[in-house]
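Curious: why these numbers?
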Amino acid sequence: MINNNSHKTHKAHRPYLSFIIYHLLFIISLAFASASEVHAQEPLQNRAFTAGERLDYQLYFNWKFIWLKAGTAYLEIKDGRYNNQEILHATLLTKGNKRTDRFFMMRDTIVSYLTPELVPLFFRKGAREGKRYYIDEVWYDYPGDGNVHLRQRYTNNDRKVFNTERTVNATVSDMLSMLIRARTFDATNYHEGQKIHFKMADGDRVSDEVLIYRGKKKFKMDNTGITYRCLVFSSVWYDDKNKEREVITFYITDDLNHIPVRLDMYLRFGTAKAFLRQTSGLRNPQTSIIK
């Protein structure tokens, strides 16, 4: 049965392990999105990637002196077709390992369809998290008046369906399509401490997000031994008293590829981390690597 009432619970129960990669891509997308005044429905010239690219990640959890491998994730972009038109088909998959499965099952599959000019068309997230399985979906329509019409659907663990429709006069994308679009933007004019605001469709909501640019930094990856030149950002939350709390610090390559290579997420009981493990099918040279 279709239910048009909004739901309040599925965001609050999002677990930490899948939250790692979700924010790795989501927050990085915000960092570059505001560097351009392009509306969500306008086409972009893509110079950052081509179909056939794949990025693989290793997930870790750190508590005091204890380090645990928590799982893996990958992001892959392929050619495809949707509604009789050529598209780019992006897939993000996260998976916990046998050790973490004993405590918490994690299997997330996220897909996004975009035109070759990176206009978002469809988004779907199917998530097995613990004993719960839920689905987030977003359909995009562009009426031609500069607005974006969104049809959003959330299916909860009890298979109840919640539909929401809205028209927004602003740049709005889902987490994955915004990452894909954002990699084409130019952030060279950012100044340290700059706050960035953006709108993101997720489930049955369109939320406002905030992050802060922290500047540039060189660091060596422990898992690969590669040293990168990166742009550093922080995701922040505000409490009822408007006090700022830093939640995530993340690093992306300072080159045309704009690859997310590291994320540190500060939890109540430790730190969760994601590290780039390997790449294939990159379009541009990795000029951010320091030899």
